[in-house]
Design goal:
Helix 4 runs antiparallel to helix 5. This protein is globular. With about 210 residues, it is α+β, with helices and mostly antiparallel strands. It is built from five helices and seven strands; from the N terminus they run αααββββαβββα. The longest helix has 15 residues. The N and C termini lie far apart (about 55 Å). Strands 4-3-2-1-6-7-5 form a seven-stranded mixed sheet, with helices on one face. About 25% of the residues lie in helices and about 20% in strands.
Length: about 210
């Protein structure tokens, strides 16, 4: 094979490999098999390590996502490495920011009205936010530097905010899934919370964590 073709193939290989970012150690492997019905476990890896107190919340997390047509990031790799920040208050009013290297999508609404108030129609607002590769890399750098990958799956506080809000960040990479859940702990000035706030600010949303 001519040398110029070898160089070309090698260059293409290098570019393709660089599409996947490098992350610190941490997170969970994707399940090799899934039992019937477990596809609704949106925090699949937490099903056996969560406390009884949290088990119901984790097992019913699908109620926050399915009305928005959001995929289950915990059970398999997505076509592109994906990050998702979710914020919900005690009444179910929520915001989901999902992004990869090519796009960012913001969805807002209250999906719980379908179940708690038994209404038949769910309405939401979807906003597309332009994002460049350098902006994506900057957000990922902040997430990696925040300790996200080594944090426990749940961060608690001694005094929960009056509106009972919570937020969680998920990562779906080539070979693993990671989630960190935070119950509202104002004032929260941790590096991780600041990284999440950066995502919200970039998406031009009005929430303060």
């Amino acid at each position: 094979m001519p040398a110029k073709y070898v160089i070309l193939i090698f260059s293409i290989f290098i570019v393709c490999c660089r599409e996947s970012s490098t992350y610190p150690e941490g997170g969970y492997a994707y399940p090799k098999t899934i039992a019937a019905g477990d596809s609704n476990l949106y925090f699949y890896q937490l099903k056996d390590i969560s406390s009884k107190e949290d088990a119901l919340l984790y097992r019913t997390a699908w109620r926050y996502y399915k009305p928005f047509n959001e995929p289950n990031l915990s059970i398999q790799q997505q076509p592109k490495e994906t990050f998702r920040l979710s914020y919900f208050d005690a009444f179910g009013n929520g915001m989901i920011i999902t992004f990869n290297k090519d796009s960012m999508v913001v969805k807002r609404g209250n999906p719980l009205i379908l179940y708690d108030r038994k209404v038949e129609k769910f309405s939401s607002i979807t906003t597309l936010v332009p994002i460049t590769k350098s902006q994506y890399n900057s957000l990922i750098h902040d997430i990696n530097s925040s300790g996200f990958w080594s944090l426990s799956h749940k961060i608690t506080c001694s005094q929960i905010g009056t509106d009972g809000y919570g937020f969680w960040l998920e990562a779906n990479t080539r070979d693993r899934y990671k989630i960190v859940i935070v119950h509202g702990c104002p004032p929260n000035t941790s590096t991780f919370t600041k990284a999440c706030q950066q995502i919200i600010d970039f998406a031009k949303q009005d929430k303060k964590l």
